[in-house]
Amino acid sequence: MASLQLNADVGEGYPFDAEILTLVDAANIACGGHAGDSDSMRITVKLAMASGCLIGAHPSFPDKANFGRQPMSLEATALTTSLVDQIQALKQICDEEGAVMFHVKPHGALYNQAAFDKGLATCLIEAVQTVDANLVLMGLAASPLLQWAREAGLRVQAEAFADRRYEADATLVSRQKPGAVIHDQAEALVQVQGLMSGCLTCIDGTPLRLRADTLCLHGDNPEALQFARRIRALLETSDAE
Which UniProt keywords are present, listed alphabetically (predicted)? Predict the structure, then answer.
């Protein structure tokens, strides 16, 4: 497999953003749906620029109370409008700061649902196209969303996760199930190695072949910075071989 890009969800109110952004290739910046406001967006854009990271919007269902992790039932026009507003809010700040916005990655429940729900995917795709059809859409590797986006004319990046377990059908194990999140860094690094080779082990022990362009690092836990350093070192070692 070609080199994996490393991305991180940032601007969500956690204290590790500045350090993590020195270790990743792309920043997914919360833009008001589940977290973030104009001040946090501007601060994070500046940090990403200083670190040379690609900048992306990280829109969500408009649900700060649940951090965007609960499914919502919204009328399509209302959801599309909310997503446009979120993505455009970050793009405006990028324009003001002289930064280029490269991609869009949905967050939380929207990410997981839009990966397989054609209606939600259409809202997301239309929102990206409304703001800038040149933006790359980042989504779950092997999910229908990526094909739907390609068919609509968008460029895509297939994303995988270092710290989330997979089902045999390449979906993420629900956070409601035990073992869905990998807390042991050694186990997560084994999963990264599997992703680098194109084959990882599912939660039921079966092998899963999965092609990914970019690897997500969650920045919302106390060990995120140490984990980021270890993943970066692993990726750089692989690149050097």
Answer: Hydrolase
